Amino acid sequence: MLFQSFSFLHKLKSLFLLELIVLWTFQLLCKSYITTYFKINWKCVAITSSFGFDFVGPGGHFWYEGLDKFLRLKLLQQSKSLQFVETKVAMDGIIFGPLDLFVFFTYMGFSMGKNVQQVKEDVKRDFLPALVLVGGVWPIVQVLLYVNIFYLMDSAFLSWVEQQKDVAWK
């Protein structure tokens, strides 16, 4: 029992560390490419990376582990079947997607020093357009290639949406 607990904690720490390193590296590469055209907001890079470490890594890990177990044990679906993937993508889009967006915009607002009213306004302005865009594109991507690398792209996209202050499509 003790070995199993240690093994689980070791695996969990390894997954968190791996996601942090991959997320940080991906963002640094993207940001260094963009520096030739734009000024980098390093505070935003650090905050977005910490969001990945604080929420996306652990939250995503437990969400997908729990979702897999729920689909296999409660809904009796066979892993890697088309029905399993479709159900997983649908539940992700309906439950975890909106929660992820809300937490992201709230986390970013408070981390950038905004007050409650400013965060509410930002969430009200950004949430629905981001949900529509993510909801229209992400299920297709998830069905085609269901891997964690797309979390990184999702974080980059959400960061971009959050930085678009007064654009016409919001």
Keyphrases for this structure?
single chain, 170 residues, disordered N terminus, globular, mainly alpha
* Estimated helix fraction: over 70%
How much of the sequence is in beta strands? under 5%
What is the number of strand segments? Answer: 0
Largest sheet: none
Oligomer: single chain
* Total helical elements: 5
What is the gyration radius calculated from CA atoms? 17 Å
N-to-C series of helices and strands = HHHHH
Structural class designation: mainly alpha
Shape: globular
Runs in which pLDDT lies below 50 for 5 or more consecutive residues are 1-6
Look at the structure and give the mean pLDDT. 77
First-last Cα distance: 52 Å
Characterization of the model:
This protein is mainly α and 170 residues long. It contains five helices and no strands. Helix 3 (82-111) runs antiparallel to helix 4 (116-144) and helix 4 (116-144) packs antiparallel against helix 5. The longest helix is centred in the first third of the chain and has 33 residues, at 2-34. The termini are far apart. Residues 1-6 have low confidence and may be disordered.
Provide a brief overview of the structure:
With 170 residues, the protein is an all-alpha fold.
Question: What is this structure's SSE topology?
Answer:
Layout: H1 2-34, H2 42-74, H3 82-111, H4 116-144, H5 149-163
